[in-house]
Design brief:
Elements lengths: L7 E5 L2 E10 L4 E5 L10 E6 L10 E4 L7 E6 H6 L3 E10 L3
Antiparallel strand pairs: 1-2, 2-7, 3-6, 4-7, 5-6
Length: 98
């Protein structure tokens, strides 16, 4: 049995997987710094809401245009609409340094 930290990374061959947590501001925008940078922009950043409003599931999404090898931007529709912060977790996949 292994414990996985809240933030971390691992590599398999040329692929790198990083994960962590972040939050959006009341404007619905959140920026995260990856715990370990990729060689270039990651292939995928998949955010997942962990603090949805009492009304139900929050819609969170990845902003590809404002993502770099070192970090990503995440949007929250509910944060913007209600003016509250939203906590999220994410996993990112891309090319890692050899």
């Amino acid at each position: 049995r292994k414990s996985v930290a809240e933030t971390g990374y691992f590599k398999i061959d040329d692929y790198q997987f990083v994960w962590g947590r972040g939050s959006t501001a009341s404007n619905g925008i959140g920026n995260v710094q990856f715990p370990h940078a990729f060689v270039g922009v990651p292939y995928l950043v998949m955010p997942s809401d962990i603090s949805s409003t009492p009304d139900g599931v929050n819609a969170v999404g990845w902003d590809l245009i404002n993502t770099t090898a070192a970090g990503a931007r995440v949007f929250s529709a509910d944060s913007k609409a209600s003016g509250i912060a939203t906590m999220f977790s994410y996993i990112a996949i891309g090319k890692g340094a050899v």
